[in-house]
Every structure is written in C-alpha cells, then in structure tokens.
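Hey, resending since the last one bounced:
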Amino acid sequence: MRENFCFHCGTALTSQARGGRERPTCPECGQTVFGKFSVGAGGLLMQAGRALIVQRGENPGKGRWTLPGGYVEEDETPDEAVVREFQEEVGLTVRVTDLLSVRNSIREADQNAYYVFRVELAGPLEIAIDGHETVRAEFVTPAECDALGDVAPFTRWIIEHQAEGVGLHRVRDEARLVPLTGQRWALYAITG
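The structure tokens again:
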C-alpha cells in the first residue's frame, strides 16, 4: 500500500532516493515514508501444564483461538502491552518473566513483529471475559487444540514448544508453522 500524501504537511509525495532505495518523499518538508509497521504482543500463561488461549470475538481473526494479546500502542513497550492485553481480554493481572519468541511477518498492508512472552499470575486466577473482544477462554494442552477447531498456527507452535530450553535462534520450520497465504515470515524462538 503506497502513501500518496505527506502525513506531516499534506503535500503530494514524489519518489526520491532515500536510505539506499527509492521511497515516497515529500518535496516540501523532506519527510520520507519508510514503510508501514505494526507491533503485537501475546503471552503464554501456563497452569498445571495447560496454556491459556482465548477465542476472538472480533476481527482480526474472529472465531480463531490465540494466546491473549494484541497490538502494541505507540506509548508502550511490547511487555507492557501484553500485561494490558491480559487485563482487557481475560481480566487477569500478570507479570512478564521471559521473552519466548518474536515472529516477523511481511504482509500486504504492513510488516508486523509479534513478541510472545512467558507470563505468570500477579493476582488471583479469576478469568473475566467481556463477550465481545474475547468470547471464550480455556486452558489447554497441545493435544486438546484440535478439538477447538481454528487455533492459530503460531499459537499452537508456542504451546507445543513452551517447555524447550533457552537461547534465541532464527527458526524457519515450515513443516511446523504454516505462514498465512502470501506472507513471508521469520520466527525467532527460544529453543534448546
């Protein structure tokens, strides 16, 4: 998706060499469009060998089961976002303990980085969903994911690999994680 007008001053953009390639640039104020990026964050909460997942009630992904999480706001870090998302989606107070994985996906409209953190309870285990953004919440084992139907491949991958060792490595395992149609992706994950 190409920008047509400068987000700073409203002037029509032209193509100029900036940062090693041709980019939409404002001839008036010099603002350069380096691309569209989004950042998301999710959390893995384990209880008695089961992972908490939620069923989305709204798009994107309505009906799909995922880890609790969502987009990072401009004024927060990914770890702050996952704490906020747990409160919003399931009414739980959590704290981040580890970074488990970062998935990067080049999509049609933007490039998205998604951080997954291991979290632990910082309050009582009393799940409260709003019935709109989140319509169900369940603690599941990897084997129980199939019975739920549409579980996001990345969520399934995280649940299956949650007990692995430490160390951030680049993983390209298309047999284990199927990218959405037309997407390029890279996965950086905690592995043994």
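The longest helix spans residues 78-90.

Sorry for the duplicate.
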